[in-house]
Every structure is written in structure tokens, then in C-alpha cells.
Design a protein that fits this description.
8 helices
Length: 200
């Protein structure tokens, strides 16, 4: 989180605080702001959070449309050249059919041993299919350049945007993924109130 809520400093996401970052991310984005709730204050939860809620939030975060994770080389900023390593790929190279190695297997290791709800597992399954499709396509140079696709560890932002851009050539069916993600959203949204993050 490069910029924290209510603070200009933000914080580094580590293995120790990732579940809290995922919960904060999900809770703040699950409830769409309206003129009625736009000024509501988010609160600490009023009861303990279950492991299922935490893993549901993690998966929801990993596949959210506002998730801008990416892996890229050749970035120039502040008179320096930069590379981004994507640490948020929830699959192994073999699971998505990529021949090159991912620079980081942090998320796969982090998720090892976790039990996922049926809704979260459905999102993971459908997300994996989209990653597989992404890695099976030889994207035209225009799309490769626009989304910085020079590395194997492309992030969810790059995967979905490149597939959407490629739809002029060949359509990708996002319907099953969208349905699974909507089911997980429907499950999580009322819990924001039930767990006391927002007043009912």
C-alpha cells in the first residue's frame, strides 16, 4: 500500500501483515460509496475475524479490478531505471503454463496450506484459466508495449487488460470469472456490517 488511508506514509506489506492489508483493501472497496454513506467512518471489527473471512478477502483483493499489480522492466522515473517484481501471483508457473520462471513465489508460498471457501476457490479456479489463456497468447507488439509484457510475472492488471485489448482479434470469455467474483462479493459485502467495520 503505497499510500495509507488517513496517512501520507503508507506501509510495507509483508507476510506478517498481508492478511490485514487484504482485509482493509476488501472492506473499503466492497461497499460502493453513495451520497448516503460517503462520510461513514470505518471502524475496527467488533468481533474476531475468521480464517475464512481473511482468505476470502485475500482472494477478493488479488482479483479486484482496482488491483494494479504488475511485473515490468524498462520503467523510467525520477532519473532512474526501474524494474517491478510481481509478488502477488497466486499460481505456480506450471499451473498457468508459462515456460519462464517467476521472479517471486511469495504469494504461492503464503497461500500454501490455506483452506478456501467454495466461493474463493471458484474465483481462484476461474482466475487461473485467465492466467493460462494470457500465457498461451502471442500478443501483438502494440499490446506488449502498452502493458509492459516483457516479463513472465505479469500481474492481474496486465493479464485482464491485455486480454481485453486482444478481444479485437479473439474474444476472451470473462463471464465465468465475473460470476464467481460476484458470488464472492455477495458473500463478503454483508459481513462488512455484521463484523462491525461499518455501522448497520
Amino acid at each position: 500500500m503505497s499510500s495509507g488511508y488517513g496517512s501520507a506514509r503508507g506501509f510495507f506489506v509483508t507476510a506478517e501483515n498481508l492478511w490485514q492489508a487484504a482485509v482493509i483493501y476488501a472492506v473499503r472497496l466492497l461497499i460502493k460509496p453513495t451520497w448516503l454513506n460517503d462520510r461513514d467512518q470505518f471502524l475496527q471489527p467488533s468481533q474476531p475475524l475468521s480464517d475464512t473471512f481473511k482468505t476470502d478477502c485475500l482472494v477478493w483483493m488479488l482479483f479486484n479490478g482496482s488491483n494494479l499489480t504488475a511485473g515490468a522492466d524498462g520503467l523510467h522515473w525520477n532519473d532512474s531505471d526501474w524494474s517491478l517484481t510481481n509478488h502477488f501471483i497466486p499460481f505456480t508457473e506450471a499451473q498457468v503454463g508459462v515456460k519462464a520462471r517467476f521472479e517471486s513465489d511469495f504469494m504461492v508460498q503464503y497461500m500454501t496450506g490455506m483452506t478456501f471457501s467454495p466461493e474463493a476457490q471458484a474465483v481462484l479456479n476461474e482466475g487461473r484459466k485467465l492466467f493460462q489463456r494470457f500465457h498461451a497468447i502471442g500478443f501483438p507488439n502494440k499490446i506488449r508495449q502498452e502493458f509492459k509484457l516483457g516479463r513472465a510475472d505479469a500481474g492481474w492488471y496486465q493479464v485482464r487488460r491485455a486480454l481485453e485489448a486482444y478481444s479485437d482479434i479473439e474474444m476472451t470469455d470473462f463471464d465465468h470469472f465475473k460470476a464467481a467474483y460476484a458470488d464472492l462479493t455477495t458473500k463478503l459485502r454483508p459481513q462488512v456490517f455484521e463484523l462491525g467495520f461499518l455501522p448497520s
